[in-house]
Amino acid sequence: MGLNKDNVIVVANSNRMGEGQETFRQQVSTLPGVNAASVTSSVPTKYLFTDGYVPEESNGEHAAKDISLTSFVVDDNFIPTLQLQVLQGRNFSKEFADSGSVILNEAAVKQIGWKEPLGQRLEYPGNNDQKFQVVGVVKDFNVESLHNPVVPFALFHTSSKTYDVGVTFMMVRVDAGKTSKVLATLENKWKSFAPATPFDYSFLDEEFNDLYRADKRMGAVFGLFTALSIFVACLGLFGLATYTAERRTKEIGIRKVLGASVYGVVGLLSKDFLKLVLIAAIIAFPVAWWAMNKWLQDFVYRININWSVFVIAGIAVMLVALLTVSFKAVRAAVANPVKSLRTE
User: Fold this and answer.
1) What is the pLDDT of residues 143-155, one digit of tens each?
2) Which range marks the domain in which residue 318 is found?
3) Final residue before a domain boundary, out of 175, 202, 229
4) Residue of 9, 159, 252, 329 with fewest CB within 10 Å of its CB?
5) Same domain membership, residue 218 and residue 161
6) For residue range 305-332, what is the model confidence (pLDDT) as tens digits?
7) Would residue 2 count as lying in a domain?
């Protein structure tokens, strides 16, 4: 993911506090159980602002003529709160005047074509050709679901006032196991700063989970129909085993009189069914592999289907079939051969 989404509380509408927003953030950051708190124009999984920028050519490096950057306007606590990894340069800091600074991700640097990005400049035509100097590069991080690739991304400091989307969020990273206690204190503080605004919060990990709601729904539907298919198949297999055992009753009796063991008779009745299951598996596995690979194409980041998945599935199917058939096969095998050979 490139970020740590666990134990992060997202508080909406923090802009309603006006000038008291920074004071609120500072007080929240000192609460017991709170590791960091940050104010940002948006958060991962929420609204994304995208616009065009013009990289300047300097230090003899050729850059792309223009680039589309998705961005957040953040404070100097954003990177520590999400635990982003700074690969080059530095984070925003109160020790510097960062109104003209920008931090890019790896995808942005790669698309622009800079080999040495630090110190390079970006021009923003959308705000009267405002210029920004690259002070840091962070590792790529996902702000959308894994269905989508990591886009070229920029972080601008709140002092830059490069754009205003009209809302801000506050992200609060808390210690594991202290969420409930921090939430109660956080809500009380919110009421003292913005009593007329409801305390609206969510959890970042749950926001990410919601991005895969359609996939989870499809998984549940597939699971239900798989269970029904197995149940119907077992009913059919059980009926076929019952018919076969009754049709071969006298044969089983003769074999037992001639010394056949129970295990031998069960194996005799079961092997024909297991052959059919094996043939079905050989037909089904390539189809399943193709279908699952097609589904995985919807994800930019995806697993490869290992052959062991099909081995485990094959063994499971054989066991289910064997258990279904063996119930009837064992009853036929332990039956009294005298009764089996009695003339009708």
Assistant:
1) 888 888 888 999 9
2) 213-341
3) 202
4) 159
5) no
6) 888 888 888 888 888 887 777 766 666 6
7) no
